[in-house]
Structures are given as C-alpha cells and as structure tokens.
Design brief:
Elements lengths: L1 H5 L1 E2 L11 E7 L19 H12 E2 L2 E2 L3 E7 L7 E6 L10 H12 L8 E4 L2 E4 L3 H7 L4 E11 L9 E6 L6 H10 L2 E4 L7 H16 L4
Parallel strand pairs: 2-5, 2-10, 9-10, 9-11
Antiparallel strand pairs: 1-7, 3-4, 5-6, 6-8, 7-8
Helix pairs in contact: 2-3, 2-6
Length: 216
C-alpha cells in the first residue's frame, strides 16, 4: 500500500513525452479520488467515458499502439485537477475492458504526492496539472482541438507529432476552450454528426493511419 500512496517519481522526464500521437481528454466531472468500480457512470463522474477513451486510443487487434499516449484531465471533486498519462510504449497489465482500465485509474488516484509526474503503474503516470500546464508540456506537438464545426480533418496537413484535445459528454468549458484555441494549430471536425469522445479517437486514428501509410 505504501508504494501506491507514495508512487515513484518519473525519471528521464525528457523521455516522458517521447511519443508521436497524443489525445488529451477533459473529464469535466470525472472524480479525482478513488471511486467505486461498480458505479463509474454515476458517482465517478462518467469515468466510464474516460475508460473507453483509453482503450480506443491505445489498443489495436492483439497489441498496443507504441507511438501513442492518452492523457486524462480529471476536473471533478474532491481534488481537481489531476492528469493521468497512459503511454503505449510502456504500459503493462492493461486490458481494453472498462473495469480493468478503471482499476488502473483508481490506483493512480490513490497516489498522494503528485506535484511531479509519478508512476502509479507500468506506463501510467499521474500529476497535479491543469490544462494550461499540460499544454505547455506538449508545446512541441501540433495541437488540434476536436470539435463539431471545425475544418474537415481531410483538409488538414499534419506533422509527425500531433496532439488532439477533446471534451467528454459535456464538451469543453468556455475558459478551457479559449485556452485551447490560443495554443492550437486549428479546430478539426471529424463528422457532420455529434460523436462520442471515444468514437472521435477511433476516427482520428483512422485518418492519421491512412495518411502516414501513404493511402491518402
């Protein structure tokens, strides 16, 4: 229990963000303390959405995307904000079902000293970060805001390092949106329809996979 509560401070911070594709998902009500795995859609503030986003960001058939990471920015009670980073090249013991992902998130939220990034599980790191601090840490990425009404993703030219920012079922609050827009390379739309957050991640992967494979 002590190892979980104290955590292990991440070493080689310069290598913590050494991936090429990142998804930052804002959980407006997602709780910031250990929660009941049997009530993730309710008392945990729609933590089920966060779990699905992790699974869709990292998993492919019989494997994990090594060049991808996902960061959950949790803004719910009682101790917001907290950020949890899952790295595809380092993660272990992760399965694509909601309960497994939820258990790993819950373990990360039990770590107490998180002024710096702390490893809570293999490939999973937690820190006290707000959106501004998080965007500053990934400023060398091309940052795009995923939102309805933006530029069609097929009209966007992407570099080698791309970060997508998106909200949960509640979208993105005004202050956060203004911050994202001030740091982003543009607003990107994936569909004329309103999609769920995890669906957005799947489509964004699909579009970038095709492009970097030379199919478009």
């Amino acid at each position: 229990m002590f190892a979980v509560r104290s955590g292990e401070i991440a070493k080689n911070m310069s290598n913590l963000f050494n991936f090429n594709r990142l998804f930052i998902v804002i959980g407006n009500k997602a709780v910031t303390s250990p929660f009941n795995l049997n009530d993730m859609p309710g008392s945990a503030g729609r933590m089920d959405i966060m779990c699905r986003c992790v699974a869709q960001a990292l998993f492919v058939s019989h494997g994990v995307r090594k060049d991808t990471a996902i960061c959950l920015l949790l803004k719910g009670e009682p101790n917001p904000p907290k950020a949890i980073l899952f790295k595809g090249d380092r993660v272990r013991y992760l399965a694509p079902d909601e309960r497994n992902v939820g258990g790993i998130i819950r373990k990360a939220l039990s770590v107490e000293r998180i002024d710096d990034w702390v490893k809570s599980s293999p490939g999973v790191y937690v820190a006290r970060r707000d959106l501004k601090a998080l965007l500053e840490e990934v400023e060398d990425f091309d940052i795009f805001y995923l939102k309805e009404g933006g530029e069609d993703i097929r009209n966007i030219k992407f570099g080698n390092r791309v970060a997508f920012v998106l909200g949960d079922h509640l979208g993105v609050e005004k202050d956060d949106e203004e911050l994202i827009l001030s740091r982003s390379a543009g607003v990107v739309s994936l569909s004329p329809l309103s999609l769920q957050a995890d669906q957005c991640i799947v489509i964004a992967h699909y579009e970038l996979d095709r492009r970097f494979a030379g199919l478009d």
